[in-house]
Amino acid sequence: MRKIIVCGVAAALLTGGLPALASCAEKGENSEYTITAEYFPEERKLSARMSFTYYNDTENVLDALKFELYPNAYREGAKYRPISSLYETSAYYKGKSYGEIEIASVEGGASYEVTGEDENILSVALSAPVYPEERVQLHMSFTTTLAEVNHRLGVGEHAVNLANFYPVLCAYGENGFSEYVYSSNGDPFVTDCADYDVTLTVPQSYTVVYGGEGEKVTENEKNTYHVMSENARDCAFVLGENFNVATGAAGNIQIEYYYLGDQVPEAGLRAATESIAFYGRTFGKYAYSSYALVQTDLCAGGMEYPALSMIACDLREEEVPRVVAHETAHQWWYAMVGSNQFEHAWQDEGLADYSAALFLEAYPSYGYRRDDLVAQAESSYRAFFSVWSQLHGEGDTTMNRPLSAFSGEYEYGNIAYHKGVILFDRLRACVGDRKFYGGLKEYSEKYRFREAEPQDLIACFHKMGADVEGFFDSFLNGKCVI
Q1: Residue 307 to residue 292: CA distance in whole angstroms
Q2: Among 471, 461, 469, 419, residue whose Cα is nearest residue 440
Q3: Distance between CA atoms of 377 and 68, rounded to whole angstroms?
Q4: Element (H, E) at 445
Q5: Which residues of 301-339 are buried (b: 16+ CB within 10 A; e: fewer)?
Q6: Contact, 164 vs 234, CB < 8 A?
Q7: 328-374 pLDDT tens trace
Q8: Is pLDDT at 17 greater than 80 in this prediction?
Q9: Which of 152, 209, 368, 400 is deepest in the core (most CB within 10 A)?
């Protein structure tokens, strides 16, 4: 996600064959989501049924599965709000509004309950244990009600954003399934790659923008989209009645830019096309056959999903290339190479922001210089450190901490984004371009469709002959002076 921070169908089964699936990798042993849903705008509701096939790629025998219920963060009385006070006024354009997810049924298990610290977890007890390399299938019915809010999930002023709208399997780690509460700081989503088959029905007046490969049929004054993608961390859609579209290509990758009020759409399309090509040359091949960029209602600059990026309607013309470059970089540092965004936000946000600086350095016609962007990051970070130290004493500048440990957007932005940019710029200067770019290419290739810990990233530079453990330790543990 790029944040501009001011300091201070159900029934329609398509008979034709779909194009090649979104992933260019061979199909692996992934879990599978099959979702059939219909959106009812008058009620702001999405009615859905989901079949989930779990593939046990752990070494343990499991007797329960746990799912994140992200939409419940929007409900009235939620303990952890989805939007910070910095953005609340612009986000809730009609005043406070609420949404939620209601689980109507779960079949295929012994029992289920909504639990978690903030009604954020669906826990399903299995009828029988699932052993390593075995599969189990569950069937769920649910209704997601959308708040009227300019956010990644909600009915915005000009479009409808459907992201994180369904029960999502919790990531599995050393201590079992990880339960993460929502956070208004950053992106509190930690998910494994899976395969998606989604059928979404909307009124005929709506266009659906998606990442992946799909087809549309129109019947009974409704449009039904059938969308498939492999090796995707999540799926998201944007629904709109007034989209225009500009198209292009980066080699054999099809690029589409859906826009509402953009007076110079060719600039956004160009930034998407050139950044996809640049990152492919610099970090490794793009994993999907297409890329969609969509202008929509967001209270922050942008938001990323596999093969799909959202950018805010209210960006200034000069901001568009930078936000597009940042969100597109997330196709490498999030969609393809995963990390724990809740615990180590710098690992994808700092790297995506610095990747955008590298792109803008290579394409000076956009009006940005890498040196200036790094200097801005340093200036903002030093100002933050000075203010924080005066107000609270010695500042906490450690980078490996959960989103919930940040006091707000100001602290989070300076640690995850600005200090992240400084980290990667100084790393490049220390080890040289050959080892720096070599390490990132190794990182991109080795952890494609996997999740990497900070030490995995460090090991990739070490493989290039760069002894950087002490360097990273000084930044991550707050020892270095900037």
Answers
A1: 6
A2: 461
A3: 34
A4: helix 433-446
A5: bbbbbbbbbbbbbbbeeebbbbbbbbbbbbbbbbbbbbb
A6: yes
A7: 999 999 999 999 999 999 999 999 999 999 999 999 999 999 999 99
A8: no
A9: 152
CB 298 within 8 A of CB 151: yes
Q: What is the pLDDT of residue 18?
A: 36
- Contact indicator for 52, 169 with CB cutoff of 8 Å: yes
Summarize pLDDT for 179-210 with one digit per residue, the tens.
999 999 999 999 999 999 999 999 999 999 99
How does pLDDT run across 96-130, given as a tens digit for each residue? 999 999 999 999 999 999 999 999 999 999 999 99
Mode of pairing for the β-strands spanning 168-169 and 62-68: antiparallel
Rounded Cα distance between 167 and 342, Å, is 18
pTM, to two decimals:
0.93
Asked if residues 346 and 413 have their Cβ atoms less than 8 Å apart, the reply is: no
Residue corresponding to tokens 């190794």: 442
Environment class of 416 (CB within 10 Å of its CB; exposed 0-12, middle 13-18, buried 19+): buried
d(CA 198, CA 37): 8
Is the pLDDT score of 380 beyond 80?
yes
With 0-12 / 13-18 / 19 or more C-beta atoms within 10 angstroms meaning exposed / middle / buried, residue 61 is exposed
Helix, strand and coil content of the chain, in percent to the nearest 5, comes to 30, 30, 35
162 and 152 in contact (C-beta within 8 Å)? no
104: its two tokens: 């109507």
Q: How many residues does the chain have?
A: 482
Contact of 68 with 92, CB cutoff 8 Å: no
pLDDT in tens, 264-286: 999 999 999 999 999 999 999 99
Q: What type of residue is 26? A: E
Q: What is the dihedral of CA 315, 320, 324, 326, to 10 degrees?
A: -80
Token readout for 22 is 């979104």
The residue type at 400: N
- Provide the edge-to-edge strand list for the sheet that holds 154-155: 154-155, 159-163, 236-240, 207-210
Cα 161 off chain centre by? 13
Residue 224, pLDDT > 80, answer: yes
pLDDT, position 122: 98
Residue in 379, 476, 464, 396 with CA at minimum distance from that of residue 430: 464
Amino acid at 258: Y
The residues, ordered by sequence, that sit 6+ positions from 66 with a Cβ below 8 Å of its Cβ are 121, 122, 123, 124, 169, 170, 177, 179
Runs of H (alpha helix) within 25-154? 88-91
Torsions phi, psi of 360, nearest 5? Answer: -65, -30
